[in-house]
Write a structure and sequence with these properties.
33% helix, globular, 11 strands, two-stranded antiparallel ribbon, alpha/beta, 286 residues
């Protein structure tokens, strides 16, 4: 019966899937709404950053193998947002991303000790990270029901959008970045048969990320839902464009077809928006 329900679920329109998920996690959402101190803590930490980076650009770094073919030393002077286990690249690059987001429970719980060592600002899913820590470099957010991103994080709610990349886009929107450049969003996976969101255990090297140990042997992970993520990517594009901003995709040979394609070196050279090296507010929490 469970397998039949899963098959039905995966044939649903992403909007109906979101409705089902809203029912599944309704109790968590209600608990967050009943916690004014949690919402006040988020607002206190982040409110001064709302729109603070208008007129500036940032680079969201995905974890696809394509980043191994790119010279990312040029990003040291750019505002950057990373996700999940991107920290495995920090030593090689010689810098940390300004922000790191991780909202998947299997990743948070397995690699929490790694996250604690990072100096960067970290955004975590409150449902999975509560009780683990909430210091001056950490922000805990609750998943908002539905698929339409709001771009306002002050109530402590974010849109998960089937992929942490969409969470990163919503963070970038809230911070006010006028131009967001995607790299490493390969949008292509080799994985066991199964529905999006199915939890599996890796039985060998990881072919889907920049490091073979990323989800290496013995690591638990969840299969992607590419159709669902594409639906929310399109909503993110609409959100940015409605405010006169833009998202471009500089991923090498990426399969995602939602955003305007570009080349990283060209977009950094020709961008009319400011980089971190040109001055600007500090990206720190209160």
């Amino acid at each position: 019966m469970k397998e039949l329900l899963v098959k039905i679920y995966n044939r649903l329109d992403p909007r109906f899937q979101a409705w089902v998920n809203g029912l599944r996690y309704r109790s968590d959402y209600k608990e967050w709404r009943r916690d004014p101190k949690g919402r006040e803590r988020v607002s206190r930490k982040i409110s001064r950053l709302k729109g603070a980076f208008k007129g500036r650009r940032c680079v969201i770094i995905g974890n696809g193998p394509s980043i191994n073919r790119m010279d990312l030393s040029v990003l040291k002077d750019e505002y950057t947002i990373g996700m999940n286990r991107i920290y495995l690249k920090f030593s090689e690059w010689g810098f940390e991303t300004d922000v790191l987001a991780c909202v998947n429970g299997t990743v948070i719980t397995q690699f929490w000790d790694d996250f604690l060592k990072l100096k960067t600002i970290k955004f975590f899913n409150w449902r999975h990270a509560r009780g683990m820590g909430d210091d001056d470099r950490t922000l805990l957010l609750a998943s908002r029901p539905g698929l339409d991103p709001k771009g306002n994080l002050e109530e402590g709610l974010y849109n998960s959008g089937y992929t942490v990349t969409n969470t990163c886009l919503e963070i970038a929107y809230y911070l006010g970045f006028s131009e967001v450049i995607l790299i490493g969003v390969d949008h292509s996976y080799v994985h066991p048969k199964g529905h999006g969101g199915k939890t599996v255990v890796s039985d060998g090297d990881d072919p889907n990320h920049f490091d073979k140990s990323y989800f290496g042997k013995g690591v638990t992970w969840q299969l992607p839902n590419l159709d669902g993520s594409e639906y929310v990517f399109a909503r993110m594009r609409e959100l940015f464009e409605a405010d006169g901003r833009r998202i471009v995709d500089a991923t090498l040979d990426g399969k995602l077809q939602i955003f305007e394609k570009t080349n990283l070196s060209e977009v950094l050279k020709d961008s009319g928006f400011q980089s971190k090296s040109e001055g600007g507010p500090d990206l720190v929490l209160e």
